[in-house]
Design brief:
The complex is a heterodimer of chains A (85) and B (244).
Chain A: E1 4-5, H1 10-17, E2 25-28, E3 34-36, E4 41-45, E5 48-52, E6 59-65, E7 70-73, E8 77-81
Antiparallel strand pairs in A: 1-4, 2-3, 2-8, 4-5, 5-6, 6-7
Chain B: E1 8-21, E2 24-30, E3 42-48, E4 54-60, E5 69-75, H1 83-88, E6 95-102, E7 118-123, H2 127-138, E8 146-152, H3 161-166, E9 170-176, H4 193-198, E10 208-213, H5 215-227, E11 235-239
Parallel strand pairs in B: 7-8, 7-10, 8-9, 10-11
Antiparallel strand pairs in B: 1-2, 1-6, 2-5, 3-4, 3-6
The chains are: A mainly beta (85), B alpha/beta (244).
Chain lengths: 85, 244
Amino acid sequence: MTHVDGNALAGTFVEILGIEITEAIGRCRHCGSVYGLARTRAFITAMGAVMRCKDCDAVLAVIVQNPRATVVNLSGLSYITVPRR
Amino acid sequence: MTNPTLVRWHVGRVIGRRYEADSAVRLELDVPTWPGNDAGSHLDLRLTAPDGYQASRSYSLASSGESTRVVLVVHEVPDGEVSPFLVHQLAEGDEVEIQGPLGRYFIWNPADPDRSPVQLIAGGSGVVPLFSMASAREGVEESADFRLLYSVRTPRDVLFADELGALSRTTVDIVHTRESPPRSVRPPGRLTRDGVAAFSFSASASPRTYICGPTAFVETIVEWLLELGHDPARIRTERFGGSN
């Protein structure tokens, strides 16, 4: 399947974590690349969303939502930096 | 303009709808609690079925600024879960849930002191956020030079045809890929690297470039721009997946 930009996950992240990822910077735990999460690759299906590193394709984050709960796995990101306002 | 703390769910009422192209509808929503939005930003629109099942999709905003009137253009994705309903069934007076405004990356701010030229490159319905930027540019006297290069299948697929023709501060070039308008000098055909070079600011002008369209379109254009010597740090992209 084809991917879109991390941008497309902005609503999901705001709702679940309160973070506007389009202005956040993250570090890929796998290749060490540091860049804006808006530039990651997002794969979105009815089952959930997967965010992958644009440089090494490793999985950065997985979000699965069902009617009872949301499961968030951010284990592919060593950190996220969000500007303070 | 958009404060991240203001991102939340809103209820919008459809106050206008009309077909914008063969398979696209322009929706005008009245959203009393909308805080306004930057040009280029988007929102998530959520539909809830009677059994509680929910589906949400992201749509770019065609409108910007401090207004509670929000304009979207939705292109129908055949077999889609959300867009066919929005294009064909959603009626004036209906209410929808929207979350936003979203996006602080793929935006253009009219107050930006940077005066380097702005190049907008759209593939199909990727023109929506770029139209929003060109429209915002109309509202300010002194600012950057703007160009829009818009690749579209046929004249009937052109979104914002009237408004694009009326833009006075953006140079617009439309490239038809399948069918040209009558009396057009250019035969229909896909954009080429030479075409992009001819219809956009050169690398020496160090433009800021915004590209929005299907994933394959965006990746091809980026590759060409890099070959033409453009700085990757000045290119911003928004991919929306398949070719509609």
